[in-house]
Design brief:
Layout: H1 10-18, H2 30-37, H3 41-53, E1 57-60, E2 63-66, H4 68-74, H5 78-98, E3 101-108, E4 111-118, E5 133-135, H6 140-146, H7 151-159, H8 174-186, E6 191-194, E7 201-209, E8 214-223, H9 229-247, H10 249-252, H11 273-276
Antiparallel strand pairs: 1-2, 3-4, 3-8, 4-5, 6-7, 7-8
Helix pairs in contact: 2-3, 5-9
C-alpha cells in the first residue's frame, strides 16, 4: 500500500472497482464507485474510461454497469442475466415444441452474443455456446435486432468495417444488408439465416422489443436439411411476442403483433408466471 493508502498495483485498483458492483446495485455512479472502492475519484474516472474501452464495463446516462466481456468470461452482466431469467421458460417451451436448438442473443457492436442456449436433438451440429459470438449480419438473430436499429447507425457501423464472410451465402455488402433489413421489417421482425453463418446450418429469429429498438432476439437453429423455416417461424414469433409483452407491457399493449402465418396454439398454463414476476417497464431502453 502506498503512503496515500492507494494500492500501488493497477490490477489491485481495477479489482477494487470491479468489486464495487453487486446484484443489488447493477448500476453505479462515478461517486458511488469511488466511495465503495476507497480510491480517489480522479483515479476511478481514469480506470473506468479504460475498462469501458475494453468492454469490461458499459457506460450510459444512468451510470456504469458490468459489460459484455464480463458476460463472456463469467456470465456476470447483471442486466443480461435478468433478461435470460425472464426468457428461460419460453426458450425451454420453444425447444420442447420444436426439438430444435433455441437461443437468446443480444447485439454487441458488430456481433451477436448468445446469452442462453437450449439444445435440441441435433444440438451438436450447432456450434454455439453461451457467451459465444457470431457476426450479426450473418445470423437471423443479428438481422432481427439490426432491423430495429437506427438505419444511420447501421450504415455507420458497416461503412467503417467490412462484412465478415462466413460462407458463400453470407451477405457481403452494406447495400445487400440494408435490403435484407427492409425485408425483415416488412415481416414484422422475422429474420432468416439460410447457411449464411455456417454451412449446413439454418436459423429463424424474431426480436424482443417494445416501441423502440430491439433489445435481443429469440431464434431456432439446426441442420439446414431438417429446418422447415416457414413452419417454425410462427413458434419463434409467438415466443418473442410473449417475451416482449412481459418485458414491455405498456409498449406492446399499444401495438398488435404482425404475423404472416397462424400463431401456434396457446402455451402450457403457467409458462409465463416466472417471467412476469418482477418484470415491468422498459428498463432496457
Amino acid at each position: 500500500m502506498s503512503a496515500s493508502g492507494t494500492p500501488p498495483s493497477m490490477v489491485e485498483r481495477m479489482t477494487l472497482i470491479m468489486g464495487a458492483f453487486d446484484g443489488a446495485s447493477p448500476w453505479l455512479t462515478l461517486q458511488q464507485i469511488a466511495d465503495r472502492s476507497g480510491l480517489p475519484r480522479s483515479t476511478v474516472h481514469r480506470i473506468l474510461d479504460a475498462l469501458c474501452k475494453l468492454r469490461w464495463l458499459d457506460h450510459t446516462g444512468g451510470g456504469y454497469r458490468l459489460g459484455m466481456r464480463s458476460l463472456e468470461l463469467g456470465g456476470l452482466a447483471v442486466a443480461h442475466n435478468e433478461l435470460r431469467e425472464a426468457t428461460a421458460p419460453l426458450l425451454h417451451d420453444l425447444h420442447l415444441r420444436t426439438s430444435t436448438t433455441a437461443h437468446l442473443a443480444v447485439l454487441d457492436r458488430l456481433d451477436i452474443v448468445y446469452l442462453d442456449r437450449v439444445a435440441g436433438r441435433h444440438g451438436a451440429a450447432v456450434a454455439t455456446r453461451v457467451g459465444g459470438r457470431t457476426p450479426a449480419h450473418a445470423t437471423a438473430a443479428g438481422k432481427a435486432i439490426l432491423a430495429w436499429t437506427d438505419p444511420r447507425q447501421v450504415e455507420s457501423m458497416y461503412r467503417e468495417n467490412k462484412l465478415v464472410v462466413r460462407t458463400p451465402r453470407t451477405l457481403t455488402s452494406l447495400g445487400a444488408l440494408q435490403q435484407e433489413l427492409v425485408a425483415v421489417r416488412a415481416r414484422g421482425g422475422l429474420a432468416y439465416d439460410r447457411e449464411e453463418s455456417a454451412a449446413g446450418v439454418a436459423c429463424v429469429a424474431a426480436p424482443l422489443r417494445g416501441s423502440g429498438r430491439a433489445v435481443a432476439a429469440i431464434s431456432l437453429t439446426g441442420p439446414a436439411d431438417r429446418m422447415d423455416l416457414p413452419r417454425l417461424a410462427p413458434y419463434v414469433q409467438e415466443s418473442a411476442r410473449q417475451a416482449s409483452v412481459a418485458l414491455f407491457p405498456r409498449d406492446t399493449a399499444r401495438r398488435r403483433p404482425r404475423t404472416e402465418e397462424p400463431v401456434p396454439s396457446a402455451w402450457p398454463p403457467g409458462a409465463l408466471e416466472e417471467v412476469l414476476k418482477g418484470i415491468g417497464g422498459d428498463y432496457w431502453l
